[in-house]
């Protein structure tokens, strides 16, 4: 059974008499109408995307479709191909979907640049236009593209680019443009100034930067959780665990996480032997049947001749062994070693001092003198070391698949992208780089991709599953082990088939 949110999350509204009204007024009316008449459905209606408030996926009651994929070394190449082709489809889908009047212009054949004619039946803003103008331009990100070169290409000035970067300071989504991302620029029909820029990251995640006034943009993040499909990745060790796991279809990041979770129980370099087996239960995100690239490991079992090592993800976002003992190393609350004053709290409803609009503060600010040592709150891997015009020099660290932290406005950074980091390890010195009123550390904690209050959020504290939740936990373990057992049986069955080719 599949859990589908997609259809429900789209709001549709009736066609309304819009010809006689000015574009701006209508845009407001459309938003109002969408709020008042959800669920009404006509073919020529405008489809509004709804911003979903996303809770951690473990909170969602998932009744996943289970695809059993058991992989032996011999057939593993096929498994990898399947996965790759899914990703390719996901990257290209948005270009061919949902825009009936899209024209393809191939000025540069190797780059996909779409120009959309004003559509007299579609959006209100396009109604106001009488002659065809390139009001909407789509740019598919290529290797080596920067925001600056793309803005040059679409002939939008640097001033506007910095206004958008300013809006992106709390999100920092534009710092990691990757091939497969798509930027859509929508210009005002009369002034031809940029009204809106959309960043398409994957089918489940887009960000819209919308003009508020002459000097400011604000962002809206569109999230579609789609379906999390459960599958099992199983294999037999032949060579190293790493090589065998890659062959079975696990990613480098997933293998790193498995090493981390089981690493205190078993030495992956010395104790792994040929013939050992593993079964990994993994959830993968699909939106409109496209793989988004997001995965979550639900359960791990490594079987040796005498021992079996396991890890199970529980609803609190942490991993435990089959006895309910925590496998996630404890985090510390503060990214520094002294008691510094919180100068600005995490606040998703903060009002922007200039525009008066809601402009979230996605982290906690600590007032501290430049040069204060900053430490990682947990074990992890450095995923970003960047220099942003407003966020300044900053570091991002991924702690397993659930947690991520960011440290902004640093004076100096002592780590590189890809470095493995220990809890409490110094990553650099605080400072006042970027747009600040004084030296401070802006510190963010993200759980499952969403910023949370770092001072109050539940952090892994390396204990066991609470007594009152033990029954729930044991039920979850039983479910995951049952899935692993099926894969385990299939592994044996395949082996019998291979050893008896004639039968
Ligand atoms: Zn801040």
UniProtKB/TrEMBL annotation:
<feature type="domain" description="M23ase beta-sheet core">
    <location>
        <begin position="360"/>
        <end position="454"/>
    </location>
</feature>
<dbReference type="GO" id="GO:0004222">
    <property type="term" value="F:metalloendopeptidase activity"/>
</dbReference>
<keyword id="KW-0645">Protease</keyword>
<dbReference type="GO" id="GO:0046872">
    <property type="term" value="F:metal ion binding"/>
</dbReference>
<dbReference type="InterPro" id="IPR011055">
    <property type="entry name" value="Dup_hybrid_motif"/>
</dbReference>
<dbReference type="GO" id="GO:0006508">
    <property type="term" value="P:proteolysis"/>
</dbReference>
<keyword id="KW-0472">Membrane</keyword>
<dbReference type="InterPro" id="IPR016047">
    <property type="entry name" value="M23ase_b-sheet_dom"/>
</dbReference>
<feature type="domain" description="Csd3-like second N-terminal">
    <location>
        <begin position="225"/>
        <end position="348"/>
    </location>
</feature>
<keyword id="KW-0378">Hydrolase</keyword>
<keyword id="KW-0812">Transmembrane</keyword>
<keyword id="KW-0862">Zinc</keyword>
<keyword id="KW-0479">Metal-binding</keyword>
<dbReference type="GO" id="GO:0030313">
    <property type="term" value="C:cell envelope"/>
</dbReference>
<keyword id="KW-0482">Metalloprotease</keyword>
<protein>
    <submittedName>
        <fullName>Peptidoglycan DD-metalloendopeptidase family protein</fullName>
    </submittedName>
</protein>
<keyword id="KW-1133">Transmembrane helix</keyword>
<feature type="region of interest" description="Disordered">
    <location>
        <begin position="107"/>
        <end position="129"/>
    </location>
</feature>
<dbReference type="Pfam" id="PF01551">
    <property type="entry name" value="Peptidase_M23"/>
</dbReference>
<dbReference type="InterPro" id="IPR045834">
    <property type="entry name" value="Csd3_N2"/>
</dbReference>
<feature type="transmembrane region" description="Helical">
    <location>
        <begin position="21"/>
        <end position="39"/>
    </location>
</feature>
<dbReference type="Pfam" id="PF19425">
    <property type="entry name" value="Csd3_N2"/>
</dbReference>
<feature type="compositionally biased region" description="Low complexity">
    <location>
        <begin position="113"/>
        <end position="129"/>
    </location>
</feature>
<dbReference type="InterPro" id="IPR050570">
    <property type="entry name" value="Cell_wall_metabolism_enzyme"/>
</dbReference>
